[in-house]
Batch of 2 targets.
Target 1
Amino acid sequence: MEPENYRQDPPGGGRKIARRSVLRLLGMGALGLLPLPVLPSLLRMATRQGAIRSSLQTARTLDGRIRQWTMVIDLRRCDGCQSVGKPPQCTAACIEGHFAPEPMEWIQVFEGELPGGGTQFIPTPCQQCQNPPCVNVCPVAATFSTPEGTVLIDQDRCIGCRICMAACPYDRRFFNWGTAPVPPESRMAAYDPEHQVPTKRGTVMKCDFCPDMARTGTLPYCAQACPNKAIYYGDLEEDIGSNGESVIVLSRTLAQNQAYRLRDDLGTKPRVCYIAGHGEAVGRDVFTKGRLPTRWPWVEKIKGAKTWKR
Amino acid sequence: MEALARHSSEPRAGRSFDAGEEPSSDPQERLIRTALAPVTGTSLAYYLWVAFLLMVIAWGAYAYSRQLRDGLVVTGMRDRISWGLYITTFVFFIGISHAGTLISAILRVSQARWRTPVTRMAEFITAVALICGAMFVIIDMGRPDRVQNIILYGRWQSPIVWDVLAITTYLTASIAYLFLPMIPDLALFRDRLRGRAPAWRTRLYDLLSVRWQGTNSQWRSMGAAITTAMILIIPIAVSVHTVVSWIFAMTLREPWNSTIFGAFFVAGAIFSGIAMLIIVMAILRKVYHLEEYITEKHFLYLGYLMAALALIMMYGNVSEYATTGYKMSGETQFHFRQLFLEQFAGFYWFYFVGGLVVPGLLVLLPWTRNIWGVVVAAVLVVAAMWVERYFIVVAGFRVPLMPYKPSVYAPSWVEISVVAAGFALFALLITLFVKIFPIIAVWEVAEDLENAEITLAAERLAPDPAGGGR
Amino acid sequence: MKAMIKVLLVLVALGGAVFALAGTANAADVKVQIVAPKEAVVGRPVDIQATLHLAGDSSALAGVPVTLYTEASFGDVTGDIELAKAMTDANGVAVLSYEPRSAGDHQIRVEYLAPGASAPEVATASISVAGSTQQLYRSTAGVQIPGLNVWLLMAVLAGVWAILLSIALRVIAIARAGADVGALLPRGASRQMGGDDASQLDTTRKGVTHK
C-alpha cells in the first residue's frame, strides 16, 4: 500500500482544493468527451462517404405507401424438383441470375425429416426477419433493414467480422472466403446492395429478396423458375401476391392454410411464410428421398479463383 | 526454459553489478540490485530466445501474408463454422489479461500485502495479453483494410462495438495502472542507469519517470491516482470479459444461449489469468533470481486462489449443463452428444479433469503443495482454458441450424502458424519488457521490507527475508 | 330378402327423384343482387350485401355460400382474387366484408355457384377506392424502455474516460511538482552525480518520505 502519509490530510485545507480540482478535471473530461458521438459523422463527412441507401429508392404503391415484400412457400407443391429430374430449379435460377459463386445457395432446398418417417423439402431463402439478429449485431451497419422489410448487405462497407453469420439462426449467410469462382462478365456489373454483383472477397452475402426486380413488377428468379409454382412473392401492404400463375390475397391464403414461419419461437419474425406440406399437391411420395445436388454453371471462371465447400 | 535460466544467469551475476562487489547486506540495496540485474546484463541465451521468438513471429507473419493474399479461404473456417482458432485465441488472451486486475487491483483493494512482489508482472501480463488478444480480432477479419469503418459507422447496438469500447478502455486503464506504480521505480532506473544504459533508454526513463523526485506532493498525487485507477479497473475488467462472452451469448445459437455466460467467462478469465501469472512468475523467478522476493508462499497463495476458482468453474459447468440438459430443449441433445461423447469429448474431459479437478488436487493435496505442484497445475489450467475456449466456439457453431449434415472444422497450417506467432509475440513482449522496465515493484517491496523490519524489531520473531505477507 | 331389395330400390329411386327435383329447382333462376358502396378508402373495411332469392317466387335462398371476387394483378400476372366468403341468412342476405388494400376503381363480383350448376350466378358492382398515405402493414420489433438506451451507455463510457483523464492529469501534476523541485535544487544536481550517489539520494529521499 501507499506510505502512511498518503492518508494524512495535506496541511492547510489542501484536501478541499484537491477535491475541487478533481471535480474540475471531471467536468473538463466530460466536456472533452461530448464531441465523441458527433466525431464519426464528422469523419464520414471528411472522407466523403455517403449513406448506403442514397442510390436506392423505396418501392411504393400507387398512393405512396411503402411496399412490404414477402414470400409464401407452399410446401405442398415442392418436390425438390424430383418430378422434373433436375437439381432444384429455384436455386439454379437464383445462381444464374445473381452470379452466385460456388458453394452459395442463397435459396437452398433442405430436406427435413417428417415425424412419421419420410421427408419434406424446404426451400429456404433468407427469411428477411423483422427482428433480424444479423442486423442487430452488425458493428458497422453494413447489413440493414430496408423500409420494405427486407434485409440487405452493403459489401462495400462489410468488414468481414462474421458475427452476423454467428447470429443468423437459419444458416442463410455466406462468406466470400476467397476470390469467388464466378464468370468474368459478372465483374463488369454495377454493384448495388440490391444487386450483389460482382462478389467482393472477405464480405458476407445472402439472398437479397430481389427488390430491384420486385420494384419493376417482376417476380424473383426463384419464383419464376419453380416448375410447380410453389413460391409466391408478394406485397403485404396491398395484401397481394403471385407465383407467376395465379394471384392470391396473402392474408386469406396464409390464414386458410395455417401458414407458419421457420423457427418462429426464436422471435425473429421472418417475412417468409410456409404452408406445411411435402409435395403432395404435385404427387410426391414422402418416402422418395433425396434431390439432385446443385451445380454451378460457371465454366469460365475468373483467374485465381478458388472453390471452397460450405 | 530451465536450461535457459541457468545459462543466462551465470555470466550476468558478474557483469551486471560493479565487478567484484559483494552482495550487499543491506536488504534495500540488494533489492535494487536484483531489480536492476535483468536490465544491465544480457546473456547469449537471451538473444537466442528472442531470435527463436522472432522466427516464430516471422513465420506467422508469412502465414498471415498468405491469408491477406488469398483471403480467409486458406484457413479451415467455412460458412457453418465461421470462427475458429483466431477467435478462440482472442477470447483466451482477453481472459489471460485478467491476471493483472485480480492480483493488482483486487488484492490491492483488499490490502493483501503478499501481492507486492508479483504485481508488476501481473500488470504487464494484462497489457500484453490485451494487445495480443485485440490483434486476433483484426487477424480474423475478412477485410482488415476496412477496420476504420468501426469508427466511421460504429453502431452502439453491436456486441463487437461493445468489445472495441471495453477493450480499448481496459487497455488504456491497465496501461495507466501499470505505469502509475512504476513511476518511482522508473525514477530509480533513471538515476541508477544514467551513463550505463544506451542513450535511447536513458531518454525513455527520463520521459517516463515524469520528473519524479519523491516529494510529498508527488507521492500524494501518485497515491490518489493509483487509488482511482485500482477502483476503476475492476468494473472495467469485469465488463470486458462479460462483453466478450456476449459476442456469443447475444446470438440465437443453442449452446451459447445462456444467461450464465458473462459470469462464467469472467470466472474463467480470472482462473486462466492466475495460471498464466504463476507460469510467468516461475520463469522470471528462475531466470532472474527473484527467489528472495517471490517465495513458495506466493505460489501457494495464488494456487489457493486458482483452486477456489476451479471450484467456481466446476459449479458454473454444473449450473449451465444441468439446467439445459434437464430440459433437453432444441438442439441441446445434439450438443451434449458432441460435447460429452463424440467430437469434442476429448477436449471437454481434458478441460474438466485435467484443467479443473487435477489442478485443484495438485494445489490442495499436501504431497504436491509446493512450487512445482502449483506450476504444473498452472500449466494444465492454461492449456485447459484455451481448450475450453476452443470447444465453446467451435462446438457452438457445429450444432446444425437447419436440416443439414454437421460440418467439421480443422484448422489449417495458416491458422496454427498465426496462433503460434501470437503466443510468441506474447512471450516476446514480456521478454523485452523485463529488459527495459523493473520487473518487481521496488518501492512497494522496499516498503514491505521496512515494515517487516519494524515488526521484527517489535516482536522479535525469526527473520523472514521475503517480506511480509499476512 | 326380396322385400329388402325392393325397399332399397324404392329408396334409391326416391332419392334420385328428390335430388333431381331440387337440383333443377336451384339451378334454375336464382337471382343475386348486390348492394355496395360507390366509394371506399384503402384500409377501411367495407360491407357488401348480396341478396339471393329464387327467381320464381322470390323466396329467399338461405344457408348457401356466396363469394366475393375482384380482378387484380401482381408480378405480370392478372387474375381473380377471392376477397371474402359468407353464408346467406334466413332472408337470403350475405354480408361480405373486406378491406380494400389498393387504390383505384375496382370491379367487384359476387358469385353463387348452385350445386350441380356449371356456371355461377353473378352480380357485379364497381367501387372506387381512394388512396391513403397511412401505412397498413407494419412490423414492429423491440421494446423501448425509457431511459435505457444508447445514451446510458455513452454516459457510462464518458464517465469512465473522464476518470481516466483525471488520472492522466494527476501524472501531469507529478511532473509539475518534479519541475518545481528541480528548480529549487541546483540545476541538474542529480544528473551530475554518479549513478550510485544519485540513487543513494533517491532512496534516502524515499526513505524520508515514508517514515
Note: The first helix of chain C runs from residue 2 to 27.
Target 2
Amino acid sequence: MNSFGDLRELYQEVIFDHNRRPRNFHAMDEATHHADGHNPLCGDQLTVYARVADGVVEDVSFVGHGCAISTASASLMTEAVKGMPVNEVETLFRDMHAMLTESHPDRDLGKLEVLSGVREFPARVKCATLAWHTLHNAITRARETAKTE
Amino acid sequence: MNAPAQGKQTSVDVAAHAADFPILARPVQGRRLAYLDNGATTQKPQAVIDAEARYYSESNANIHRGVHWLSQHSTDLYDRGRERVRGFLNAAQVEEIVFTRGTTEAINLVAFSWGRVNLKAGDEILLSGMEHHSNIVPWQMVAEQTGALIKVIPVTDDGELDMDAFRTLLSERTRFVGVCHVSNALGTINPVAEIVRQAHSVGAVVLLDGAQAVAHQAVDVQALGCDFYAFSGHKLYGPTGIGALYGRKALLDAMPPWQGGGDMIHTVSFERSTYAETPQKFEAGTPNIGGVVALDAAIAYVQNIGLERIAAHEETLLQYACEALASIPGLRFIGQAQQRAGIVSFVVDGIHPHDLGTILDMEGVAIRAGHHCAMPLMNRFGLPGTARASFALYNSHEDVDALMAGLHKARRLFGLEVERSA
C-alpha cells in the first residue's frame, strides 16, 4: 500500500480516521465562548464552542463541514485542547501555526504532528489552520468570523 | 496553419494538435500533464505565443497617434484584430466590437455605461441562477445606484434554466436580461436565441456571457439577435488581459463612455470634451495591442482547425468521460442538461472536492475544485463546491483515463475501495 507516495505525507491514516469520525462534533449549549470560521472560496465552514472556567478550557466542540484536512484538524484540535489552560492553548495555537506554515517548533506536538505534511501543500494550509484561528477567536472573544484564505 | 484544410478530421486528428501547445509537453508533479481545467483558462499554442513575441520584436508602437511608420503598422494590426473578432462573431459592423480586458470588464462596461443611464428605480434586471459572479456583482452595484431590482431565473435539478419561470418573470418592468451562453460550472448550453426572442418581446436588452461558449461552438450574434455578447481571449487559446464586447451599434452609439482618457476623445478643453465615435469611445488609454495581435492569432488558429470539428471532438470526449465517470460508485453528476458543452461537474461521496483536487494534482491531472465563481448556483444544489473537468481541443481519451485513474486512487486512499485487479 505504498503506491500513494507523497500523498501519504498529507493524508495520514489518523487524518482519515478523524475525517470519518470527527471527535467532539456537536454544538454546545453551555459554551461560554464560541466563534465561526468560514473560508468562502473553499466553502469550509465551522463553529467552535468552548466552555472555559477558572482559566481552563474544560470542554470544546465543533460543528460544520469541510475537506478531510480541515475536519481532521478541527477534530484533533478539540482532543488536544480539552482540559488545557487557556494560556497553553494560545501557545499551542502559535506552535501549530508555525508547524503548518513556516518551520517546525522546537517541541514535539504529539498526535498533532500528523498535520505537519500540510506545509508541503501550500494550497491546503488554509484548510488546516481554519479551526485553530476560529478557536483563537472564540477564547479571545474576537467578534469577527475567522478566515484563513 | 497546422490542420490539413481538406477532408474530415477525426477526434484523434484534433487531439493531435496537442503538439502545438508547448506547455503540454512539460511534466507536472513528475507526471504527464492531463490539463482538464480549460474552463478556467486554456493553454496557448505556439502560434499565439509567437504572434505576441513577434509583435514586440517587430511591430511595437502606440496606435492612432504617430505619423511614423511603426505606429501606422501597429494600428493596422490592431484594426485587423478587430476585424477578425467581427468575423468570428459575425457582427454586422466592425464598430460593434469593443476591446476589453476580458468578459468581466465587458460586462462591467455594459453595467456602468448602459445600466446607469437606462435603469431606474423599479426597473427589473433578470439574471439566471447559473451566472458567474462577473455577471451578478456588476448588476448588484448598478442596482444599488439606480434602485433597479434583480430577479433570478431559477435552475432545474438537471441544471437547465426553468424557461416557464423565465416567461413568468418577464414583464414590461424587465429592462435587462443577462444570461450565460454556456454555464462555466455545469456546461449547460442555454437556449439563448429563445431567451433573446422572449426578452425582446417585452423590450428588454439582452447580454450574453460567452466566456465559456466561444471556444466550443461557432457564435453568430446576428442569428442570436442579442444586444451584447462578451468573451475573453484566454479561454480561447489567447492571452490573458484581452477580450471583447460586441454591442449593437445603435446601443453603443447612445451609451456614454465609462472611462475617460486618451484615445476615447475627439477634442478636450477644460470647459468641455467631446468624445470619439464607437468603439474608440469605450477604449480609453493605450489598449492591449499585443494582446489583440495574439487574440487575432488565437482566433485564426481555431478557425483553421474549425469550430465544428473542435465541438465534435469535445462532444466525443464528454460522452467518453461521462460513461467512465458513471462507473465510479458514489459519483454524482451536477448538471445533466440535454445540451452541454465540454464541461463535467461532479461530486464523489465521502471525498470533498478539494481533497479530490489535491490527489488528482499529484497524478498530474489538473481540474478545478470549488464553487467556480458561481456561489448562488452551488447554494442551489446545496453544495460547497464541485470537481470540474473541462475539455479543450488538445485533450484526448488518455486525459480522461488519467482522471479516472486518479479518482480510483483517491477512493483507495480514502478507504472507499480496495486495490482493483488489473
Note: Residues 69-89 of chain B form the longest helix (21 residues).
